[in-house]
Amino acid sequence: MVVITLDHVTATENRAPTAGPSRTGGVSLDAAATTRCRRRVHLDHDPTAATSPRALPDPALEQRRADAGEHRARIGELLAGVPGWTAVPAQGSGRAAAVSATAAGVAAEAPLIWGAVLPDDPGPPGAGAGRRGGAELLVRLPTGGYVPVVVVRHRVTDPGRGAITSPLLEPWPRGARADPTRKVRSQPRDLMRLAHLHRLLRAAGWSAPSGRPHADHGGVVGMDGDVVVWHDLRAGHWPGGRSTLAEYDLRFADRVAVAVAAATGAPALAEPSRITECRRCPWWPTCEAALVRAEDVSLVVRGEAAVALRDAGVATVSALAALDPAAPSPVLLPDVPFTDVVALARAWQRGLSVVRRVARVPVLRADVEVDIDMESFGEAGAYLWGVLLRHPGGARPGDEPEGYRAFATWQPVPTDDEARSFAEFWAWLSGVRERAAATGRTFAAYCYNEQAENRWLLGSAQRFVGRPGIPPLREVEEFIADPSWVDLFAVVGEWFLCAHGKGLKRIAPAAGFAWRDPDAGGENSMRWYRDAVGMDGAAPDAAQRRRLVEYNADDVAATRTLREWMTSPAIDDVPLASEL
């Protein structure tokens, strides 16, 4: 059984949200509302919020939507050759025309309907809200009626076994089998969208009759794009044994209540509270201002912990800071000690970004040190491996020169040229390690948050196996497992309390480091990369390539500065948590 993780920090759907006025006079919600912050749903439908501050458009989100559109188009082209294929024309003539074209395909009992747009479901009388949406593909069952298939640009399986799949060009649930090479990756947003489409199909009278084989199934085509992963929406994967459809119904009813209250001026059913989704929410400037005015406790402890503290009467940072850290916690805090929570509140009050847990921060240092940072373009590939070499124990004749190097491919990823750049990076790194060992010196390599680097180290070795210079997977696994591969993000998390986040861009300034580019950041680098390789049809931009290399060089310089700061006398200037 696949266990679904409840995610209170939602992900955005691949397509732009379509929530808006309904023809029924109420509000109409799409599937994204069920996995979106309740306060965001409120603000999306509150007419008085129209002039409230919003974040600037996120270029990375716009890029992801564009990439998702290209992915859907590619899958559509592949499926177009399947017998029984019918395509709904793009909505250039309007939504109503697309709904009519979909209805015509259904009436003709077309086996496959691509680009389906479903009729709005006004909902029960008096509810004041309904639902709307569309599916990349509707698949007709042999017993009549349709089930939905959605196409997404993220991974929907992991290596393993047990996922129920059918080949992409045979998108029929009756032919699906347990896959010996894939297991399902938990993606609540996909399941909620399938349930949403199932309810729309039933409201339109287009769903398969209840009780028939596969009547309550839905499929997902993920980033790999070679299979359809099928889900039984009646299976009890959710907490309490609820099915996907039952979970959806609960969430949708809740979001409807929130949206209707906002649209009609009734008392708000959702108030601001900081969660992970806030980082990319267009309404964050509005919510942040409200939270700061209220000195809300979620500014220090977010998510469900903040809700629990408010319920216990600890609603503000000041109230939390005033508690005795030696006393029992008023609520269950499974992820962080209560003493740390109080210290974080006190640090926030004083404007401190970091405080120490211990007097001396243990960080592995070595005679030969290499800082490593990888740049990837979403899920498409790793296009740059940057390294910064130093010899704290002294250089020897024959050593590689100190300084920064970049191993890059400027062919748009995914590309086989990644094999060349990765092989060159690995050969250089292996040579430095071997030289240190041969001369009796210690070696250490550093990154900040190894999850990304490890993923592409392993992925590159697996993807390009057998190519010139590509190391065996075992060799990469041994490097990752070696204590000399140091994740400074983990070091910071263990020995510091960070009142404003633990990201490198947050922490390195405390060590005195500043990036040369005022717009440096992972999200912006995605836009720079598109220009650097000419992804949008323009000529490749050499200036953006230089910008990316400088950004990467600053990232590895930041980890070096951070490490040296943590092991220098300057660390004594950082207050101890116990002193707050």
What is the topological layout?
Blueprint: E1 20-21, E2 27-29, H1 38-45, H2 59-79, E3 85-87, H3 95-107, E4 112-117, E5 129-131, E6 134-140, E7 146-151, E8 157-159, E9 164-167, E10 177-178, E11 182-184, H4 188-204, E12 217-221, E13 227-232, H5 244-264, H6 284-294, H7 303-311, H8 317-321, H9 338-349, E14 354-356, E15 368-376, E16 382-390, E17 403-408, H10 417-438, E18 443-447, H11 450-463, H12 473-481, E19 485-487, H13 488-495, E20 496-498, H14 504-507, H15 522-533, H16 542-566
Parallel strand pairs: 2-5, 3-4, 7-12, 15-18, 18-19
Antiparallel strand pairs: 1-2, 4-6, 6-7, 8-11, 9-10, 9-13, 12-13, 14-20, 15-16, 16-17
Helix pairs in contact: 1-5, 2-15, 4-5, 11-12, 15-16
**Can you tell me the CATH class of the largest domain?**
Alpha Beta
Q: According to CATH, what is the topology of the largest domain? A: Nucleotidyltransferase, domain 5
Query: Strands of the largest sheet, in order across it?
Result: 3-4-6-7-12-13-9-10
**Helix/strand class:** alpha/beta
Beta-strand content: 15-25%
Please state the CA-atom Rg, rounded to the nearest Å.
26 Å
| Secondary structure: helix percent | 25-40%
Q: Calculate the mean pLDDT score and round it.
A: 90
